[in-house]
């Protein structure tokens, strides 16, 4: 017999009659089986325990233990061993039934023909091998199911991580789109308010200058202070919308923060302690000094308001080379840290949104942090908030380090405007209120004024009236300020030109004569006077 199973093909032949036992053993050995023998029930049980045969050829009548009982014990203790019961005397149907009921897998009368014996044992081995194959298959299947379950769990974990990353990216995109849309809206509103404030600020300056009544001058001064607060709010809106053109120059950040201490203490009050942790290696940062100073003041005021009853604010600087998202070689981190109550996640997520505030109505505009965000982005960096409820808040501004050695200095404003010498100014302004106030201001400064409501009218006037300098708006109906300036230069190449604009995005002025001498509305009287004298002085 060919043996295809890896398991040993052992047959235990149990019979107390030696000739019968011998005959069965020889028949099975010739068929290729490994046969061991037992003459009693006790020997049979011992051999089962020691050799673990695949098949037991078991005589029912034994001298010590009945074959029926032996079969029951074998099946109870070794259920995978197959039992073929044999008997020469118990051959009735009832005997067969009793033997099979004891657990036997087959029943045969003896003496049996050799072919029948081999066939019966072979059938039992086929059953045994099939059971073994099924067990191996089950074991393999369990392992495959376990491996597949693990693979599916890993794939599901990866999918969940991808879903979380995608949700995070989508949230960031929605936030960026929201901020961009709000920025465009606030930028457009700010441009219109600049023109309104130009007329208001200019008119108040004239009232202060012309009034001989102290009380009137005092009232105008209060109104001018309120108007300047409006100018500050517009500047914050423009910074957030990133349409305001900032003059980024090398600034010694440690020197700037040190020079702000008096201003900060006046703004914050005596209840809050102000400390600095300035890295000597911080060096120069590429920034607009005025806007950066305003951003730091806004952060300090926000921190003070969060710490009702007092606390500590720390302004720190450090130099880094690995920001979260950047392409510059070196970066400067400027942070404002407080030991206040911190922010819950929902407040942190909206902290940079313009007009969002947790302060009561009338106690905050919600523009302070948005200005910080806008300035950081416009200067090529970014701003972050690190906060936990009960653990304070740190707002960090990350800006590119400057390689230049020149340091941006903020020039102090002039107290008294420089007067003109009756030169003729061509004033081109489409807004009637602004045109009227600027015309009065120019007359007050000692100039003669010719006014035009648009570029076409200005070109006609300039061809027939001698003019010494042109002051023109940037955004006008019909010809823009840039187009008007180019056409004026075609027939008056030496004409000085000064742009005065409330529009923040003036990139179209690049390369236009006089574009570098831009007066941003609203401007003070001395700024207008100084710019005119500078331009007229260059002409000689």
UniProtKB/TrEMBL annotation:
Gene Ontology molecular-function annotations: phosphorelay sensor kinase activity
Entry keyword annotation includes NADP: no
Residue ranges of every copy of the Response regulatory domain listed in the record: 10-125, 424-536
Catalytic activity, EC: 2.7.13.3
Position of the signal peptide: none
Coiled coil segments of this chain: 127-179
Keyword RNA-binding: no
Transmembrane segments annotated in the record for this chain: none
Top-rank lineage group of the source organism: Bacteria
InterPro entries: CheY-like_superfamily, HATPase_C_sf, HATPase_dom, His_kinase_dom, HisK_dim/P_dom, HisK_dim/P_sf, Sig_transdc_His_kin-like_C, Sig_transdc_resp-reg_receiver
Location of 4-aspartylphosphate modifications: 59, 473
Reaction(s) catalysed (UniProt annotation): ATP + protein L-histidine = ADP + protein N-phospho-L-histidine
Annotated keywords: Coiled coil, Phosphoprotein
Domain Histidine kinase, residue spans: 188-403
Pfam families documented for this protein: HATPase_c, HisKA, Response_reg
Protein's name in the database: histidine kinase
Source organism of the structure: Alsobacter sp. KACC 23698
Organism taxonomic ancestry: Bacteria, Pseudomonadati, Pseudomonadota, Alphaproteobacteria, Hyphomicrobiales
């Amino acid at each position: 017999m060919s043996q295809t199973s890896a398991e040993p093909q052992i047959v235990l032949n149990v019979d107390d009659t030696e000739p019968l036992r011998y005959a069965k053993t020889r028949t099975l050995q010739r068929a290729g089986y490994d046969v061991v023998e037992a003459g009693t029930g006790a020997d049979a049980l011992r051999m089962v325990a020691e050799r673990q045969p695949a098949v037991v050829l078991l005589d029912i009548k034994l001298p010590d233990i009945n074959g029926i009982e032996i079969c029951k014990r074998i099946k109870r203790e070794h259920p995978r061993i197959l039992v073929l019961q044999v008997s020469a005397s118990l051959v009735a149907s009832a005997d067969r039934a009793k033997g099979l009921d004891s657990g036997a897998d087959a029943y045969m009368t003896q003496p049996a023909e050799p072919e029948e014996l081999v066939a019966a044992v072979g059938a039992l081995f086929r059953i045994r091998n099939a059971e073994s194959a099924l067990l191996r298959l089950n074991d393999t299947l369990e392992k495959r199911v376990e491996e597949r379950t693990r693979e599916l769990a890993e794939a599901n974990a990866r999918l969940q991580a991808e879903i979380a990353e995608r949700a995070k990216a989508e949230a960031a995109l929605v936030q960026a789109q929201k901020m961009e849309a709000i920025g465009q809206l606030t930028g457009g509103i700010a441009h219109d308010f600049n023109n309104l404030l130009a007329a208001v600020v200019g008119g108040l300056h004239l009232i202060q200058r012309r009034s001989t009544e102290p009380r009137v001058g005092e009232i105008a001064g209060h109104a001018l202070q309120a108007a300047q607060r409006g100018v500050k709010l517009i500047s914050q809106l423009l910074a957030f919308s990133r349409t305001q053109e900032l003059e980024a120059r090398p600034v010694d950040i440690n020197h700037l923060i040190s020079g702000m201490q008096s201003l900060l203490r006046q703004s914050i009050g005596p209840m809050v302690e102000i400390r600095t942790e300035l890295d000597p290696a911080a060096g120069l940062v590429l920034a607009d000094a005025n806007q950066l100073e305003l951003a730091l003041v806004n952060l300090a005021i926000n921190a003070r308001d969060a710490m009702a009853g007092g606390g500590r604010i720390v302004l720190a600087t450090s130099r880094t080379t690995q920001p979260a998202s950047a392409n510059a070689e070196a970066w400067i981190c400027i942070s404002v840290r407080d030991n206040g109550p911190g922010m819950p996640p929902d407040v942190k997520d909206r902290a940079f949104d313009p007009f969002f505030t947790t302060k009561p109505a009338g106690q905050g505009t919600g523009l302070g942090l948005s200005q910080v965000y806008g300035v950081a982005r416009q200067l090529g960096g970014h701003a972050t908030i690190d906060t936990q409820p009960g653990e304070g808040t740190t707002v960090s501004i990350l800006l590119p380090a400057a390689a230049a050695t020149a340091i941006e200095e903020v020039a102090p404003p002039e107290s008294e405007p420089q007067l003109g010498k009756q030169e003729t100014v061509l004033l081109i302004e489409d807004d009637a209120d602004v045109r009227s106030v600027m015309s009065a201001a120019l007359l007050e400064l000692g100039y003669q004024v010719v006014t035009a409501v648009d570029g076409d009218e200005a070109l006609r006037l300039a061809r027939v009236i001698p003019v010494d300098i042109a002051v023109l708006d940037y955004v006008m109906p019909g010809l823009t300020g840039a187009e008007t300036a180019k056409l004026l230069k075609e027939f008056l190449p030496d004409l000085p030109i000064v742009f005065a604009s409330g529009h923040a995005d003036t990139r179209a002025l690049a390369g236009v004569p006089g574009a570098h001498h831009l007066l941003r509305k609203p401007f003070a009287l001395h700024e207008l006077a100084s710019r005119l004298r500078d331009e007229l002085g260059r002409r000689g």
